[in-house]
Write a structure and sequence with these properties.
Layout lengths: L1 H7 L37 H10 L11
Length: 66
């Protein structure tokens, strides 16, 4: 799916997991519509995202920085 989306939308430059979304706060990518909805997510998890990132490393997609 990552490859399909990256090919279909070549402007995609970043790959983040649901559990990483809070790391996007204070970036140009953050759009907060409801400030009371900030929650802690655990899916899909660091181990899964590590495997996905390794499998698509050739796409050179960045990840959020903590």
């Amino acid at each position: 799916m990552v490859r399909y989306l990256a090919k279909k939308y070549p402007t995609i430059k970043m790959l983040i997991g649901h559990h990483e979304y809070r790391e996007m706060e204070n970036t140009k990518y953050w759009l907060e519509m409801d400030s009371g909805y900030r929650t802690k997510k655990s899916d899909p998890g660091d181990a899964f995202m590590s495997k996905v990132r390794k499998a698509v490393a050739d796409l050179n997609l960045s990840k959020p920085t903590k």
